[in-house]
From TrEMBL:
Record domain Methyltransferase: where: 31-122
InterPro entries found in the cross-reference section: Methyltransf_25, SAM-dependent_MTases_sf
Protein name, UniProt field: Methyltransferase domain-containing protein
Highest taxon listed in the record's lineage: Bacteria
Coiled-coil boundaries: none
Amino acid sequence: MTVTDEETAQGPVRHFFRFAEPELDLNDICLEVHAGTGEVSRALAHRVRQVTVVDSSFDALTEGKRLADREAQTNLIFQCGDASSLPQLNRTFTLVLCHDALGTDADPGAVVRELVRVSRPGAAILLSDSRLTAAELRDLLTGAGAEVKRTDDAEGHSYVEAFAP
């Protein structure tokens, strides 16, 4: 999906993309966890150097890869894995995302700790969720050592941006 296709994306995905917009940089090495088919990742792929798309569903990732290939998006890496135990090294990513999935995770705190662990110092960590409030997301991030910068609520979702320590 390209930004020109953003209008056809679901409202919360469009809002998440707009929320992330100030942090996007062509040099970013990005991670999206609980990504499903990577709808968010595919929308922002042309605005960053590389995106690693992680989800526990092989079928969702296969569909996401098919869609990325159809759009000739070559800077996405699709990886099946557990968001609470990522295989990436510490301080790997300059931008980390999780859209509308923490509220369904058995241990959202473990996922957020992993997101902070794999983020480079000062990296933006962007979370959104329809089940967790901005205050709950903020508490998860600060509990993992990140510094919250801003929050927003729109279209039944909470959005929080923080920076890795």
